[in-house]
Design brief:
Blueprint (H helix, E strand, L loop, with lengths): L2 E4 L5 H10 L8 E5 L6 H6 L2 E4 L5 H7 L3 E6 L8 H14 L4 E7 L10 H16 L2 E7 L3 H15 L1 E4 L11 H13 L6 E5 L7 H12 L4 E4 L2 H10 L19 H12 L9 H6 L6 H8 L6
Parallel strand pairs: 1-2, 1-4, 2-3, 4-5, 5-6, 6-8, 7-9
Helix pairs in contact: 1-7, 3-4, 4-5, 6-8, 6-12, 8-12, 9-10
Length: 304
């Protein structure tokens, strides 16, 4: 097997993927890309190829991807402009003879009528990769259990209540660990070309039930306030969150837009994420983590 490229290797997902790859792949067969290569010193010391690359600088990508055969393309965070970034990466990969692109997409991607703004970029990226002529694997990741355990649980426990527009829609909340493990499985095994996998946890949850479990484990009340989409926007407005990605203040305190989260909740409510798959266990050889196990892991960060 040839060299494996990991984009965004200094981010949470990329860093975890690089560590897991090192357990089964020689360090010299890894090409780890980042704008901040100093964060990858431990990998460089282990013998991995650490290279500076910027999604907004195609020339840097072209140089950084030399010698790669497979690429893990971890989606960037800039909703609305990331398709251009992803395209730069795939064009550089193709020019370097990379044969297979593994992309971190989103559950429900491409389902007709899915309102999730987040998935529009993912769908455009999936289609762009397919048109490139390279072999592809789309990993359609569900909502991260780690996000539920931190970004959702902590403010809800602090306030004692949480507005919610996802209603009783079901979502197979998944651990990021399992998303990383299936990515590494696909990169290091044969037979995954030109496929899309649903990357889900072992059970379906409504978001109110997930918060009820947080409340029970913390021994503190969380009152769920069912709201419509406009009510959800008003809640994020009150926190100072920009509505659209294009309105985000660069390097500001809040790097995300409410449009993505409100339409994500709508997507859950309307049933676009109501799916449980066995792809994680089939490809990694182990059952996916439960929501409870991830909540237990992060419980120490919750307000006392």
């Amino acid at each position: 097997m040839g060299k494996i490229i990991v984009t965004g290797a200094s981010g949470q997902f990329g860093n975890a993927a690089a560590k897991l790859l090192l357990e089964s792949v020689p360090a010299e067969d890894l090409i780890l890309l980042s704008r901040t290569t100093d964060k990858l010193a431990e990998f460089a010391e282990a013998g991995a190829n650490v290279r500076a690359a910027d999604f907004d600088d195609p020339a840097s990508l072209l140089k950084a991807m030399e010698g790669g055969e497979r690429m893990l393309l971890i989606s960037t965070t800039r909703v609305g402009t990331r398709v251009e970034q992803h395209t730069n990466a795939v064009e550089a990969a193709k020019a370097n003879g990379v044969e297979h692109v593994v992309y971190t997409s989103i559950l429900g991607c491409g389902k007709p009528g899915n309102p999730s703004v987040e998935q529009f970029d993912h769908l455009a990226t999936e289609q762009m990769i397919e048109k490139s002529g390279l072999a592809y694997t789309h990993l359609r990741d569900s909502l991260y259990a780690e996000a539920v355990a931190t970004a959702m649980a902590i403010p809800a426990l602090q306030a004692g209540h949480k507005p919610e527009n996802a209603g009783h829609g079901l979502c197979p909340i998944v651990s990021r660990d399992d998303c990383v493990a299936i990515a590494v499985g696909v990169l290091t095994q044969e037979g995954h070309g030109n496929k899309a996998y649903d990357v889900t946890g072992p059970e379906l949850w409504t978001l109110p039930d997930a918060m009820a479990l947080v409340s029970q484990m913390a021994g503190k009340p969380i009152e769920i306030e069912p709201v419509d989409d406009e009510g959800m926007y008003r809640y994020f407005d009150s926190l100072g969150v920009a509505r659209k990605a294009s309105d985000i203040v660069p390097d500001g305190p809040i790097p995300w837009a409410s449009e993505g989260m409100v339409t994500f909740g709508q997507s859950i409510r309307e049933g676009f994420m109501n799916v449980v798959s066995d792809d994680v266990e089939r490809i990694t050889g182990r059952p996916p983590r439960t929501l409870r196990s991830v909540l237990e892991q992060y419980q120490g960060l919750w307000p006392a």
